[in-house]
Amino acid sequence: MDGLVLVRTSYGAREPERMSLRTMGRMFGWGSFGVKDAARRGLEATTSHTYRVRNREEFEDLTRWHLTTSPSFSGFYEQALAEARFDSYRDVGHTTAPTLVTHGADGRYVPVGNAALAGAIPDSRLVVLRDAGHLVFIERAWEVNHEVNSFLEPR
Fold it and tell me: What is the pLDDT of residue 57?
């Protein structure tokens, strides 16, 4: 394999830094007054404040898109259960491909402390981008693409 790129990830069940209960509540839209408000709250929990301020129109577009493509509540719940059960703690050290781990510094869904995963992978490089959350690949698309291209190009 030429290279492995991981974005906003963790070991899974044994992640060093867990999502706060407040963030979890926002992700599920608890306290919302309807589907649109729940979608907005969930996206606010996965993006940085800086992104939302600088890209208001894009954030609104993202909210509308999210409303049309989101899984059902049961599908979302099943995804959350699968993520809670996922555990790659013992396996990541066996990764043989050079690896790039990219993470947003303001990630609340998968907090930046979980980027410690990079330290367990031999021949890995960690890039943490400021002013970006869980959706770092949208919030800082140019920088993420640049990092990925720079990492993979020599290979």
Answer: 96
- Confidence (pLDDT) at 112: 81
- Tokens 């259960």 locate to 81
Cβ–Cβ < 8 Å for 23, 120: no
d(CA 104, CA 144): 10
What pTM was estimated for this model as a whole? Answer: 0.78
Structure tokens at 94: 């066996």
140 φ, ψ (degrees, to nearest 5):
-130, 50
Predicted confidence (pLDDT) at residue 138 exceeds the cutoff of 90 = yes
Please give the DSSP secondary-structure letter assigned to residue 134. T
Domains observed in the chain: 1-155 (3.40.50.1820)
Report CA-CA distances (Å) from 33 to 37, 40, 41, 52. 6, 11, 11, 21
- For the four alpha carbons of 12, 133, 17 and 151, in that order, the dihedral sign comes to positive
Spatial contact of 32 and 38, defined as CB atoms under 8 Å apart: yes
Token pair 């306290």: residue? 31
- pLDDT value at position 38? 75
